[in-house]
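Summary for the lay section of the report: proteins are chains of building blocks that fold into shapes. Here we show the chain for ATP synthase subunit b, chloroplastic and then a coded description of the shape we predicted for it.
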Amino acid sequence: MKNVTDSFVSLGHRPSAGSLGFNTDILSTNLINLSIVLGVLIFFGKGVCASCLLTDLLDNRKQRILNTIRNSEELRGGAIEQLEKARARFRKVEMEADQFRVNGYSEIEREKLNLINSTYKTLEQLENYKNETIQFEQQRTINQVRQRVFQQALQGALGTLNSCLNNELHLRTISANIGMLGSMKEITN
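The coded shape description reads as follows.
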């Protein structure tokens, strides 16, 4: 009690030489502030008891805290609900992605098989074209060889005939051939 009284006394005490000073004693300054606040409360709230005022302040604070907790719980519930919805959407999208992936792989396999079949058919056609070309070239070569052999045989026969035939025999053969051609012409008319 003596400290409280000393605090009030020191409040009235002014330093000399007209300068202001600070009281660095924290305990005594807090007590002074507390006593001033309580004095003002008692003076202005004559019919109000300090404990009732404190109780009201605590009740208000309790209600604000409870309201804040309630709001937080509601927000938490809403957040959990949104999280569940997001998880459900994620699972749905993941299933769709898996389905697209499976369908994509199936489509790729189908396209791969179509490409293989198409390539096989193309190769088969090319093989057929190759074989036809080979046969055509063989036939053409055979015909060229036959024609050459025929020409050589004809030239050989003409050479033999020319060497064996004299002019008179030659003229008779030509006349006989002309006669045969003429009779063939009459038959066809």
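Put simply, here is one thing we learned. The CA atoms of residues 66 and 72 lie 10 Å apart.
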